[in-house]
Every structure is written in C-alpha cells, then in structure tokens.
Design a protein that fits this description.
mainly alpha; 4-stranded antiparallel beta sheet; 16 helices
Length: 440
C-alpha cells in the first residue's frame, strides 16, 4: 500500500515539478546572453541552482525519506479553512477575472511614468553624513563631481573640443589646461603694476611704529565706544542699533583682562596680516604660460605621454537625474568618446534596462515554447503566462502609484517574478487538468 501511494505521489508530482523546474531554469538562463554582467551571472547561478534543486528533489529527497522514514501526515495536506475562498472564486469567477483584467488595463497608462533611477547615489541614505557631504559638494561646479572629460593628444583638437562643448546649452563651463593661462595678460599686468605703484607705499612702509601697549589699546577701544554711541544717538534705525551693539561689545572688551584682548587681537589682526601678505604677492604677478604652470595643475590635466583632457561641467541642478541625463546625452552627441561619471551612470542604466527587456522577451518565448511542447494546449500556455504578465504589469503600476522608481537594487525582483512566478502557475494548471478544483 505504501509503495502504491509512493508511486501515485511520484506520478502526480513528476509532471508539474519537472515542468516548473525546467520553465523556471529557462527563465533565469535567458538572462545569460544579456550585456549586464551582474544579471547575466544571476541568471547563470539561479538557472543552474534550479536544475540542481530539481535533481536533488527527485534523487536525494526520496532517498532521505526512505532512510529516515518520517511518520505520515495525520490529515490531508492543505488549507481547509480556505474552502470558502475556493467556493467564492468559483461562484464569482467571471467578475474576478474581468475585474482583474480591467484594473490592469486601466493602470497601463501609469507605465508611461515609470522610470529607471540610474543614479547609484540614490541607493544610499541621503541623511548619512558622508552622503550628505558629497551631495553638498556636488552642487559646487568647482569640485567636478559630475564632470565629463574628453581625452585627446593634440592641442588643436583640445581647442576645437572646448569650443564645440562650450556652445551646448546643457554645459555650464568647459575647461582644459589652457584655461589656466589668462587672456589679455599684457593689459592685465599693466593694471596690476599701476595698482602696485599706488598700494606699495601702504603695504611696504619705510618705517613701522612699535606695537601699542595694552593701555593704549584700552584707550582706543573706549574712544571708539564713545564715538559709536555719539553717532547712534537716540535713533531707532538698524544702523544705530548695530552701532550701539558694537559699542557694547567693545566696552566689554575694554573692561576685560589683557589676555582676552590679546586673544581678540589674534582673531582679528592675524588673518588681516595674512590677507595683506596675499595682496602684496598678487601685486607681484608675472606672465603665466603653459611652461611655468605649477606641476600639480599640469599633472592633473596632462599625462606624461601627452594625453590631455577637456572637462565639461553641467548646467542646472547636478543632483537632478533628468538634468544629468540631458547633459550626458548632449555631450555624447557632440563627442562620442566622452567619459566620466554622468556618462558611465547613463550608459549603465541603458544597459540594465535593455538587458531586462531582451531577457524578459527571450524568457517568455522560451517558457511559452516549453509549455506548449509539454502541455500541447495553447489555452493552457496562455493560462500560465497571462497571470504572470498581469502580475508584472500591476507590480510596475503600483510602483508608479507609490512613487517607487526602478533602480539597480529592486529591478532584480523582475527576473525573480518571472522565474519563480511561472512555477506556481504550472502547479495550478496541471492540478486543474488532473481534475482537482479546490486548489486553495
């Protein structure tokens, strides 16, 4: 009796289990020919894993059952409490099928608004300190976080590329090594020399008085306090209020100790000395050429073998995906050899979307052919695939409604939906063909 029951169970499980395993494996293996290496390897691993799981289910599992000989089930396996649901579905089958199809079709226009977020930075927590800092820095064009580069070995080509990219409306600024050599240098140097002639006596006096004593500083502070309060008078305007506030602060500093005044002097006077020293250096400007540029600048723009880069920066919000896409597309249209973060992200997104579209089509065709060969009924093939397509469409429609874009993380669920989803449909179809109706 036990052997007969085992044989019956094996025959009943053979067709749905084999067909589900082959269809699921085929669905995953169809991702192998795609250009997206990550999903290609996922298809290889998952497809091979399904085959291994199937072989284990028909060899190792029966052997373990025979060896361990676990006790049988005390009652039939199933969900008896779902019997009312079975009856409800059978009694209202037309309304349920029609309603489901109507909802799926009504939501199809939503798929127009479904988009793929190709920016991997959006997978990170924007509130994390490191990510928040990067997003703030990326807003500054000088950081070059979203720059696109075009490489060349010719100065003439670099100039032509710079001119071409600077005309694009999506480009904010174009730079190359020559950008660090100022234009109209003779006229500018003449103006600097005139300024130096006027400012040098003040910046480089013939004699310097001794530093004031602490008492002299106190007297000067009190004199300033008196002058500010006299100027403010009883006026209620913002200028008068600010004058009185400054007078109060200076009076408090005058009444404090010498160490506090020395600290305040270090805070205000030392930076002023540094700025004045910088002004003195600026007034000694000399002609700038490519030959006397600092090596640190030259090395970041030109390699030792002569390869140089032209850099383009995006106009608009650098954290906006659509803006980056327009920027990358415009630069690539002008210079197809352009490289950089926005280009890599854009092309990666296009590759991922293309891989899923092609793999999905291949998988549906292969699974459909496999089902037709096994089931020999077009209606059964459609009954297996149509719910799967409806589930995929509704899933993406819900993504639009809850404002969840597809990205590099969640798009992996689509092959899982295709591969695993078809298996359960097969179990229902085979059970129905064998005469079972209470499927839940």
């Amino acid at each position: 009796m036990a052997a007969s029951d085992s044989g019956t169970a094996a025959r009943r499980a053979a067709v749905p289990l084999s067909l589900a395993a082959m269809a699921t494996a085929a669905g995953f293996l169809c991702f192998m020919p795609t250009d997206y290496k990550g999903i290609s390897e996922l298809g290889e691993i998952a497809g091979a894993g399904m085959l291994i799981a199937f072989l284990s289910s028909i060899t190792v599992l029966p052997a373990l059952l025979k060896l361990i000989n676990p006790p049988g089930e005390s009652e039939p396996v199933g969900y008896a409490f779902l019997a009312p649901v079975d009856r409800f579905l059978e009694d209202h089958r037309y309304a349920i099928v029609g309603g489901t199809i109507a909802v799926a079709l009504a939501g199809l226009p939503l798929l127009y608004f479904l988009h793929f977020d190709f920016n991997p930075m959006n997978l990170r927590n924007p509130k994390a300190e490191s990510i928040a800092t990067f997003l703030d820095l990326r807003k500054d064009p000088n950081t070059g976080a979203n720059a696109i580069n075009v490489m060349t070995r010719s100065d003439d080509d670099a100039r032509k590329i710079e001119e071409k990219l600077s005309k694009l409306p999506e480009v904010l600024r174009v730079q190359s090594l020559k950008s660090f050599v100022p234009e109209d240098q003779p006229a500018k140097l003449k103006l600097i020399a005139q300024g130096a002639k006027v400012l040098n006596p003040a910046l480089n006096p013939d004699s310097i008085d001794d530093p004031p004593s602490d008492q002299e500083n106190v007297d000067s502070l009190k004199s300033s306090v008196k002058t500010l309060r006299t100027a403010a008078g009883e006026d209620k305007g913002p200028g008068a209020v600010a004058s009185r506030r400054l007078a109060d602060a200076l009076e408090k500093l005058a009444d404090s100790n010498e160490a506090t005044r020395n600290k305040a002097q270090a805070i205000f006077v030392d930076p002023l000395k540094i700025m004045l020293e910088q002004v003195k250096n600026f007034l000694q400007a000399q002609p700038v050429t490519l030959d006397n540029l600092p090596p640190v600048i030259v090395n970041s723009w030109k390699a030792k073998d002569g390869l140089m880069r032209v850099e383009a920066l995006p106009k608009g919000d650098p954290n906006d995906n659509d803006n980056l896409r327009r920027f990358a597309s415009a630069v690539l249209a002008a210079e197809p050899t352009a490289i950089g973060g926005p280009v890599s992200i854009l092309k990666s997104g296009d590759t991922v979307v293309s891989a899923f579209v092609h793999a999905g089509i291949y998988a549906l065709l292969v699974i459909g052919l496999l089902l037709w060969i096994t089931l020999r009924r077009i209606t059964d093939v459609l009954l297996t695939l149509v719910p799967l397509l409806v589930a995929g469409a509704v899933t993406m429609e819900i993504c639009v409604l809850i404002k969840l874009p597809l990205n590099f993380a969640n798009i992996v669920a689509l092959p899982l939906l295709l591969g695993i989803g078809v298996a359960f449909k097969i179990y229902y179809i085979v059970a129905w063909r064998s005469g079972r109706t209470n499927l839940l």
